[in-house]
Amino acid sequence: MKGNPKLIETLNSLLADELSAINQYIVHSEMCANWGYDKLHAKFEMRAIHEMKHAEKLIARILFLEGVPVVSELKAIHIGNDIPKQLECDHAAEEDAIKAYNAAIRLAGDVNDFATREILEHILQDEDAHIDEIEELQDQISHMTLPIFLTTQVGG
After folding, report:
1. What is the pLDDT of residues 92-117, one digit of tens each?
2. How many structural domains does the chain have?
3. pLDDT tens digits along 65-84
4. Does 94 show up as a binding residue in the annotation?
5. What's the domain range around 13?
6. From the centroid of its chain, how far is CA 129?
7. 13: closest CA among 83, 50, 67, 81?
8. C-alpha of 64 from chain center
9. What CATH number does the domain containing 64 carry?
10. Do 156 and 42 form a contact (C-beta atoms < 8 A)?
11. Does residue 122 have a known ligand-binding role?
């Protein structure tokens, strides 16, 4: 099925966002593992896996629409040098993703591609959950203080 060129371009932009997020989360995850924060390592690693699944869905949809998935482009990747900065960088990335998915959902509706819109809506729900998880961690840090919070992240 030949898809709308503007929508395919937008899907490729979302794909670049997802591929960038995978890299950012993997680096943050491995930094946490290196510091001994096994619970944060697992959370960040799981988020990277979710983003991989989003990338997979986007690639499949681009191919279905007879487009060419562009996997060689990344957006800016922001690596935090400590846990609060990592969460800040991840929160900003998720905020940007939510804005981009909302715009893509509007575009899919405008071009009457409701199947693509539904796929994007499901991914948007995951992105909403990601930002909620990040804000939960940020709240825990503000309530407990960073040193106490970090003691809760050691061990599996």
Report:
1. 999 999 999 999 999 999 999 999 99
2. 1
3. 999 999 999 999 999 999 99
4. yes
5. 5-70+78-151
6. 10
7. 67
8. 22
9. 1.20.1260.10
10. yes
11. no
Closest listed residue to residue 141, CA positions, set 86, 73, 71: 86
E strands, 1-156, are none
Annotated binding residue 50: no
Crossing angle of helices 114-144 and 38-64, in 10° steps, is: 170
Nearest to 124 by CA among 100, 89, 93, 92: 100
Residues 85, 134 contacting (CB under 8 angstroms)? no
Distance in Å from the first CA to the final CA of the chain: 47
Distance of alpha carbon 128 from alpha carbon 94, whole angstroms: 8
Contact assessment for residue 26 and residue 77, using Cβ atoms and an 8 Å cutoff: no
d(CA 102, CA 68): 22
Task: Note if the pTM is more than 0.70.
Answer: yes
135 in a labelled binding site: no
| 88 has binding-site annotation | no
